[in-house]
Structures are given as structure tokens and as C-alpha cells.
């Protein structure tokens, strides 16, 4: 769970909430499998992916601003650590997207 705080709570906490909503919709879809549930899961999963990428872009812009303010004097260890932290939100967004798609496939498969 430390990766949630490392990735920045501004983007990671909403992604966790989106994951919870998608899982709840999947469980609801197992009981009443409707097209609306499929569309909601797909839309929220795509939103999670794009929101994670947005977190990376905003973090990258901030990092580039800090590098330019330091006249480019930054160590490679700090830069690599920053990229590692910056890639947590898009990676988590991708995992949520893939889970959402998998849930939609399962719901489509079991639909009667």
C-alpha cells in the first residue's frame, strides 16, 4: 500500500476509489447483467487510465520545471527516482483499465 502514497495521493486516491467502484459494479453486474453496467465499467476504466496518464504528465511538467530552475544540475539517481514515482499513477491506471475490461469480458461471457 506504500505505492499509493509514493505515487502522490492527489492522483492515487481517486484511482483507488475508481477501482472500488468498478469492483462494486462488477459484483452488481453478476446479479443483474445489463448493458448499462457494461458501459459504466468500460467508461470508468478508461477514465482511470487517462487520469493516471494525466498525473504523470503533470508530474513530468513539474519535474522539468525544477530541472530548468536548477540549470540542469541534477543527479541521475534523483531523476530516475522521480520517473519511478511518476510512473506509478499511469501504471495503476492501466491495471484498473485492464481489470475493467476483464470484468466486461466476463460479464459479456456469462450474459444470458
Helices and strands, with pairings:
Blueprint: H1 2-6, H2 9-31, H3 35-69, H4 76-86, H5 88-110
Helix pairs in contact: 2-3, 2-5, 3-5
Description of the molecule:
The protein has 112 residues and is mostly helical. The protein is 87% helix and 0% strand. The protein has five helices and no strands. The mean pLDDT is 89.
Count of strand segments: 0
In whole angstroms, the N-to-C terminal distance is 38 Å
Helix content, binned percent: over 70%
Task: Kindly name the structural category.
Answer: mainly alpha
Radius of gyration: 18 Å
The overall pLDDT, averaged over residues, is 89
The global form is elongated
Q: Count of helical segments?
A: 5
How many strands, what sense, and barrel or not for the largest sheet? Answer: none
- Uncertain segments are none
- Beta content comes to under 5%
Q: Order of helices and strands, N to C?
A: HHHHH
Keyword list:
elongated, mainly alpha, 112 residues, 5 helices, 87% helix, single chain
Gist?
This protein is mainly alpha-helical. It has helices spanning 2-6, 9-31, 35-69, 76-86, 88-110.
Amino acid at each position: 500500500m506504500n505505492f499509493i502514497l509514493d505515487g502522490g495521493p492527489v492522483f492515487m486516491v481517486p484511482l483507488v476509489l475508481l477501482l472500488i467502484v468498478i469492483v462494486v459494479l462488477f459484483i452488481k453486474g453478476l446479479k443483474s447483467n445489463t448493458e448499462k453496467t457494461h458501459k459504466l465499467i468500460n467508461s470508468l476504466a478508461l477514465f482511470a487510465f487517462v487520469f493516471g496518464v494525466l498525473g504523470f504528465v503533470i508530474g513530468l511538467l513539474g519535474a522539468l520545471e525544477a530541472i530548468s530552475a536548477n540549470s540542469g544540475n541534477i543527479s541521475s539517481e534523483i531523476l530516475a527516482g522521480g520517473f519511478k514515482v511518476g510512473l506509478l499513477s499511469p501504471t495503476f491506471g492501466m491495471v484498473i483499465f485492464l481489470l475493467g475490461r476483464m470484468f466486461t469480458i466476463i460479464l459479456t461471457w456469462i450474459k444470458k
